[in-house]
Amino acid sequence: MKAAMKALVSVGVMLVAVGGAGLTAQDSLSAAKDLYASAAYEDALSTLNRLDGAAAPGMARQADEYRAFCLYALGRNREAESVAESIIRREPLARLDAADASPRLEALFADVRKRLLPSLIRDRYRAAKSALEQKSLAVAEPQLAEARLMIVEAERLGVRDDGLADLSVLVDGFLQLIRSSAEQRQAPAPAPAAPAATVASAPRPAEPSPAPGPRAATPSAAPAPAMAAAAHIYSVEDEGVAPPVVVEQRMPAMSIELQAITKAQKSSGAIDVVIDEGGRVVDATIRQSLNSSFDVLIVRSARTWKYRPAMKDGTPVRYRKTLILVP
User: Fold this and answer.
1) Which DSSP category does 228 fall into?
2) Which of 172, 238, 262, 311 could be disulfide-bonded to 327 (CB atoms 3.0-4.6 Å)?
3) pLDDT averaged over every residue in the chain
4) Cα-flanking dihedrals φ and ψ of residue 189, to 5°?
């Protein structure tokens, strides 16, 4: 009986201790806010620095915000920007929720976000690309969705990055591929169709039937060809590189029958092309098949496409570009 009572007392002491620690952290944060409001910035900063590192995420974020506010008020702008950077790296799209966020502080955080977004977007894209290569669509989709929101924010802030337009199309294209794959898994299996080689017999050149509208997107993660040993191949993942500009990118026409099949199957595809320093396509690889017969036609056509080459620091460079093929 005594042992049981002792155990209960111990548990009670532990609960009080835990509750007290949480209350102390909240009180410290409130005290720091009051000190900041009264312009006692050094004292507020000292109070914030004593906060328990195990504070709840929401409280820790507020503490970091006020830490940046104090540093900025003290003229320690570089340190304030460093704190703002750590906050934005953790939560790229989160807004300041502190009541004391002045327009100048809002501008500070907006400037840091504007500077970081291009690299953060590429980080999300790389993570999604890695998941796609491992066929982990459930992991890739939220990464791509967040990248899409970050691109919208970058556009709102007026971020200047030549690769973001291509990245935007590629992110949308891969999201569509993922969702199409999910729909195909849920739908009943289609009736067997005629062999693709027969269905996709030579397209009728006299008929300007609409070709699938691949949307120019940035390069993705296809393994670099052997030529990469001779020249580095840039991609949308590289900042400071202006992507190639289309001069001629004519798609092969699809037969009516093949269009019907791909639309019924809700198929989408993707092709990687390597564009050299002269704007010529020197390699074309199907990343995701739209249709085995059409794959042959698109690769053959890709060899004839022309671009103004990608540029880095005023110099033409090789570039791997991905096109999303949507019938």
Assistant:
1) G
2) 262
3) 79
4) -65, 135
Global pTM value: 0.70
Q: How far apart are CA 327 and CA 319, in angstroms?
A: 25
- 284/181 Cα distance (integer angstroms): 23
At residue 275, the pLDDT reads 96
Neighbours of 203 (CB within 10 A): 16
pLDDT at 18 over 50: no
Task: For residue 228, give every residue at least 6 positions away whose Cβ sits within 8 Å of its Cβ, in sequence order, or none.
Answer: 318
How many Å apart are CA 113 and CA 131, to the nearest integer? Answer: 26
CB-side neighbour CA atoms (13 Å) of 231: 14
**49: Cβ contacts below 8 Å, ≥ 6 apart:** 67
Please give the structure tokens belonging to residue 186.
């849920």
C-alpha distance from residue 253 to each of 103, 165, 193, 200, 324 (Å): 55, 26, 20, 10, 16
In tens, the pLDDT along 85-128 reads 999 999 999 888 777 888 999 999 999 999 999 999 999 999 99
Measured at the alpha carbon of residue 108, what is the angle toward residues 107 and 113, in degrees to the nearest 5?
95
Which pair of structure tokens corresponds to residue 253? 């026409």
* CA–CA separation, 139 and 253 (whole Å): 35
Coil/strand/helix, residue 190: coil
